[in-house]
What we know:
homodimer; alpha+beta; four-stranded antiparallel sheet; three-stranded antiparallel sheet; 7 helices; 10 strands; DNA-binding
Amino acid sequence: MLSLERRDRLSAEEQAIVRGMMGKMRNIAAKQDIIREGERVTDSCLLISGYAARYNILSDGARQISAIHVPGDFLDLHSLLLGRMDHSVTGLTPCEIVLVPHDLLRGLTETHPHLTRLFWLSTLIDAAIHRRWIVTAGGFPAQGQLAHLICELYTRLNVVGLVSDYAFHFPLSQIDLADALGISTVHVNRTIKELRTQGLIQWQGGQMQILDWDRLREIAQFDAAYLDLECIPR
Amino acid sequence: MLSLERRDRLSAEEQAIVRGMMGKMRNIAAKQDIIREGERVTDSCLLISGYAARYNILSDGARQISAIHVPGDFLDLHSLLLGRMDHSVTGLTPCEIVLVPHDLLRGLTETHPHLTRLFWLSTLIDAAIHRRWIVTAGGFPAQGQLAHLICELYTRLNVVGLVSDYAFHFPLSQIDLADALGISTVHVNRTIKELRTQGLIQWQGGQMQILDWDRLREIAQFDAAYLDLECIPR
DNA sequence: CGGAGCGTTGATAGAAGTCAATTGACGTGG
DNA sequence: CCACGTCAATTGACTTCTATCAACGCTCCG
């Protein structure tokens, strides 16, 4: 379930510990905030199902999304060591999350170095994704950016077994995409239209179908290396 | 020297360990690569003096910078747990770095939980900075983006004692700024001109002088909270 | 002296934003 | 059951921001 377990082997004991840390499941509605900027939090959230996003509100009221999360991701593992949240987290769709108390996580850093490194790794992959977003935002026009996001989400969902035949559930609104890509909704709409017209994707009823992975990947200059999907000792 | 020590207290033993980990100093010329994309590395680099940057080269040859580093920063602490570098690192100016062997760092994660958390924290702050760059890239026009970068660098340099009277050494080229902000050099030039004309900054001979911090901060919507500068137990 | 690199400026082209309007899906209340 | 409101998707017209192309000056240095 955790993306952690795809990048290194966990011992039976470690698996048991991780499972034992999970608090009770909580249901989050779409558009409901899970964490608010400025809070000091006492638990980290693991996303079980649904899409969630980190975002900030700018002074003109615009929402800028800095990360989109898929099941298996920690939404705010970084809150374990950072003093206050520098962003909010919201459900983009209805979500299920479990809370992992910071006390337990901190205890784990004292007693289980290997698990600690894997949790650390999880935040490092977050950071690698952030860097890639910076690169695509700065270096690509809207079409490349959108194509890259689709490739990335496809790959990340694939890791947790949520794709089949180049298709995945993708019920986000064009508004969400606009806020993530930093472009207007009108422009998102036109950019999607281009991808459709070029026969690269199909997207309707909350279902995304990639029709031509190779060309989409090329437009996006997508290379999954930054997601560090090797399963190796860490 | 490390930015680490500004965010929590280190015991005498911890300070000694950290000092003991430093390998020998290396000098890097401006525009010289320190780490190349795709490498597996065996040491992490700590920047002692100068400016460095993480970057990727896009298929059209453009360079997109995803992070700018100041003295006291680790350039690639994440390489400890990530398999291969997903970006390169270069000196933007002549730099001094010290290498910290991964063997030592990994050993430390086995024996010193508190120091481990502080190293982890260092990468979390990197990530927080990445998020802020995503927000400013997506949400601001060029002037706000540039203003934000100046505010950020001022604040980060202040942490390590490298500013005085709102001035700091800033010998980057406009080309470097263009690659960091994802805009053209011509537009960088015009944007700087605006900031100068508005009496916000002065920048000549590699020296940046902030003339009106309050207005610059306002244009940039800069709030240092994301840099998490509190000195608290972690 | 002459070239290379950087900074600066003007003119023009292209990308993306804003404003406005229309459509369709959906849910609520009468 | 239908009227109505809301929200998202879509499209057109126009504006603004940013890129590109081109030219020129400056400084540094071989």
